[in-house]
Amino acid sequence: MEQGGLTWIAFEAGPLRVTGAVVMTWLVMALLTGASALVTRSLRSRPGLVQTFAEGVVLAIENAIRAVMPEHTGLVLPFVGTLWMFLAAANLASLVPLLSSPTADLSVTAALAVLVFFSVHWFGIRASGLRAYLRHYVSPSPLLLPFHVIGELTRTLALAVRLFGNMMSMDMAAVLVLSVAGLLVPLPILMLHIVEALVQAYIFGILALVYIGGGVLTQRQLIAARKAP
Amino acid sequence: MSDISVFVLASTVLAGAGIVLGTMLPALAMGRTITQALESLARQPEAEGAITRTLFVGLAMIESLAIYCLVIVLIVLFRNPLAQYLVK
């Protein structure tokens, strides 16, 4: 919640400076990993409350992915599901006192966007082969190749800046209202923060999914591409 | 007026104007998008899933324009790289 809660330097290891954003990222990662390990340690066929909740989360993610990519759901489920859960936890972290959400740092969101950028090519090549994947860059005509490349780069930039701008501005608005008005006045803004955090996590994940789905050719397109000379 | 006060005045006024335009125009675009989505939802309620997903993606695209404006305005207000020529 504090201003500049992400830029303090936790410790230095040689030339590396580990900032608060990295520490917060580790904290969220440890929380998610620990919770997943605890939930999946004792799986039963007659699930209890916690297992039902976890299965509901995974099923909801799987259904959302299947609606976009019905043919390759299992391929992208680990990546996009992890993105969704990590972003939801990371965006909501700033509601806990003394913590601040790591996604309000441009470096963190840029790292996530670069991850999405590379995974588009990774999943595209895995699902349809190198030749077919590269051919879709020159698909209507080779004239469009520069526009494909520019589109790839700008949408990665937009992905990073969108998440960063939203989370940073929500934190900043809460701090500004707190400094202008009294103690309980920022509460409505914090409630808006909950909605905004979940919506931004959803949008980041669904955009990653749509980008990956654009890189992965469907079976029908693949057959058409193989038939073409 | 000294150079620095002209600079502060200009950047404040431009930041205000920039955030006004930068939220007003994307808001109009978002309004049009939502209107169209609601109309097609009323016409074809069975296509709700696809329409909602595409609507969210489109709104995110439009919203990123407003976010660009916000980032530029914040840079102009707090971290203007040109201010170093005035402050020796």
Report what the structure shows:
The complex is a heterodimer of chains A (229) and B (88). Chain A is mostly helical and 229 residues long. Chain A has one domain. Helix content of chain A is 72%, strand content 4%. Chain A has eight helices and two strands. Chain A has a two-stranded antiparallel sheet with strand order 1-2. In chain A, a hairpin with a 2-residue loop joins strand 1 and strand 2. Chain A is globular, with a radius of gyration of 21 Å. Chain A starts with 8 loop residues before the first strand and ends with a helix. In chain A, 29% of the residues are buried. Chain B has 88 residues and is mostly helical. Chain B has one domain: F1F0 ATP synthase subunit C (F1FO ATP Synthase, Up-down Bundle). Helices cover 82% and strands 0% of the residues of chain B. Chain B is built from two helices and no strands. In chain B, helix 1 packs antiparallel against helix 2. The longest helix of chain B has 41 residues. Chains A and B meet through helix 6 and helix 7 of A and helix 2 of B.
Share of residues in helices of chain B: over 70%
| CATH class group of chain B | Mainly Alpha
Helix-strand sequence of chain B: HH
Number of helices of chain B: 2
The CA-CA distance between the termini of chain B, in Å, is 18 Å
Low-confidence blocks of residues of chain A? none
Layout of SSEs?
The complex is a heterodimer of chains A (229) and B (88).
Chain A: E1 9-13, E2 16-19, H1 20-41, H2 49-68, H3 73-92, H4 106-128, H5 130-135, H6 145-180, H7 187-215, H8 219-227
Antiparallel strand pairs in A: 1-2
Helix pairs in contact in A: 1-3, 2-3, 3-7, 4-6, 4-7, 6-7
Chain B: H1 3-43, H2 48-78
